[in-house]
Known about the structure:
By secondary structure, the chain is an alpha/beta fold. It has 2 domains: 6-278, Rossmann fold (3-Layer(aba) Sandwich), CATH 3.40.50; 335-491, no CATH class. Helices cover 44% and strands 14% of the residues. The protein contains 16 helices and 15 strands. It has helices at 41-59, 86-94, 98-115, 131-143, 158-162, 175-183, 226-238, 252-267, 298-303, 315-323, 335-355, 369-380, 385-404, 411-428, 443-459, 463-475, and strands at residues 6-9, 14-17, 25-30, 63-68, 147-150, 153-156, 201-206, 222-224, 242-248, 272-278, 281-283, 286-287, 331-332, 478-483, 486-491. A 4-stranded parallel beta sheet has the order 4-3-9-10, sandwiched between helices. A 4-stranded antiparallel beta sheet has the order 5-6-7-8. Strands 12-11-13 form a 3-stranded mixed beta sheet, with helices on one face. The longest helix is centred in the last third of the chain and has 21 residues, at 335-355. The two termini are 43 Å apart.
Amino acid sequence: xxxxxxxxxxxxxxxxxxxxxxxxxxxxxxxxxxxxxxxxxxxxxxxxxxxxxxxxxxxxxxxxxxxxxxxxxxxxxxxxxxxxxxxxxxxxxxxxxxxxxxxxxxxxxxxxxxxxxxxxxxxxxxxxxxxxxxxxxxxxxxxxxxxxxxxxxxxxxxxxxxxxxxxxxxxxxxxxxxxxxxxxxxxxxxxxxxxxxxxxxxxxxxxxxxxxxxxxxxxxxxxxxxxxxxxxxxxxxxxxxxxxxxxxxxxxxxxxxxxxxxxxxxxxxxxxxxxxxxxxxxxxxxxxxxxxxxxxxxxxxxxxxxxxxxxxxxxxxxxxxxxxxxxxxxxxxxxxxxxxxxxxxxxxxxxxxxxxxxxxxxxxxxxxxxxxxxxxxxxxxxxxxxxxxxxxxxxxxxxxxxxxxxxxxxxxxxxxxxxxxxxxxxxxxxxxxxxxxxxxxxxxxxxxxxxxxxxxxxxxxxxxxxxxxxxxxxxxxxxxxxxxxxxxxxxx
Length: 492
């Protein structure tokens, strides 16, 4: 990399140079899904964002251990300490075993991530498979005086912890306001009277007789709290202190704030050097989420099966749509935005296909080295994929100008630009040509080749052949649209 990588650290609220604890090794933990339903567009953003970070760190020569968990127990409704387990509730409604629900939606999640071309993590631990680790961490927190047992449940003692630690630093919450706010909640909630302070949060919950997912513990039969699982699993696979913890901004509080408190309460020091958070995808300015009922699943996006969708959108269109915005900015869903992303991606792929067919000249009238430098600079500046894409479209402009004969490139420059597009568009951003599920046919690559052949025919003034290609594709259900920056295609 030409310049040091800078990442915005949510803990300091500023960009910081990324310096690994133990180079060339990097530990990366990203909060995974709670698998009680289909993954939606909001879920796609963190996993695409941190996939790019994972890819870029590997390109930079780091050996990355990427851990992304599966939450299959302990996540109660409304992210609270009371109520029904989200997975158990789904199992009850669908008359399934909880682990049937987990397996069904884990497999669906994996398939959606595969179609979005996200690389699988090196380790994908499940919360239910790490109960012993969670119990042991809870024991150490109790032994250090930061937690207490109450009627078979264990709660983190926020007041006790805050006497010597800065609780609320990550999220910007003030401890007095948290306590006051929690105290205004309805105290008659079941279990609320068990807490010494309403701001305390559950590390272990006593299981009621009807609770299906339950394990023995030193405090009785129960199940772990939501927050403790990530603290225990990240420690097991990345150590007491690791480099990067990623996730959505909606997890800043209480989940990640609680992770810091649990880890410091257990071992006495902070667990993470760099906290990195992506912003939300919104619909009409409101966060997209299952609890709000305003979400569109990824499968619905892929097949067009939702009332808010005007058409189906390919997985690579979704990926391109997400990467067009900086990960820390909000991204509002719209059909117009997705359709613009579809056209932009088609232009990019068409130019990459055309690049291999350009005729070289002894001398160049363009400078292509600045494009690669611009891509590196953008990624090193807090993973700014939006600027990377703008640099790639400068390459698209150059390619189309050379093809039209208004600019010239030497073979060395063509080769350099080909390597740049392969590295940043394909390898780092992960924007691969679409592969049709049926038959494995590379439809996108084939269409781009046809477009390039038609463009050659137009350059030779063979308009009859150009029209014949266009009309033949129309008969087959494919539409070509000639624009000033190139030709795009779509399927009816």
